[in-house]
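Shipment paperwork, digital attachment
Item: protein structure file
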Amino acid sequence: MMKLLGQRDSAWGHKKIGQSLRTIRADGCLITDLSMLSSWYGFYQDPAWMAEYLKFTHNGLLFWKSITSSLLPMKFVWRFYTYDERRITLALSGKTTSCVIQIRGNHWVVGIRKVGSYYYVADPWDKKRKFINKSVISGGAILDKK
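Attachment content:
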């Protein structure tokens, strides 16, 4: 079972992402998603750990391959920059694959399953599971078990 986490949690929200000035509270949706997925993959690391041990640009953007080279039980497979129903559906239906979904170019959620033209996701901003319409999806990334 995947833990449901919020990027604004007081335990880690104030932490800086890598060496950047960005905080998990303001800009840490993706690393909070990765933290949720680490629990699903069986080796939970909180968002503060992600912010310290993954690699980021000076602006706090993730170097995707640092997921694979980390101690995390998952590896980066593919990053896509438009809505790609086939890739998302395959990742969500796989036994060891997962998908983080980018919304409107600036927010990330964890994909859980597809229901019609909607996706059921875990959103780190409000720490809720919800449905999103495929029309808001602007990209995503696929992960797999190491």
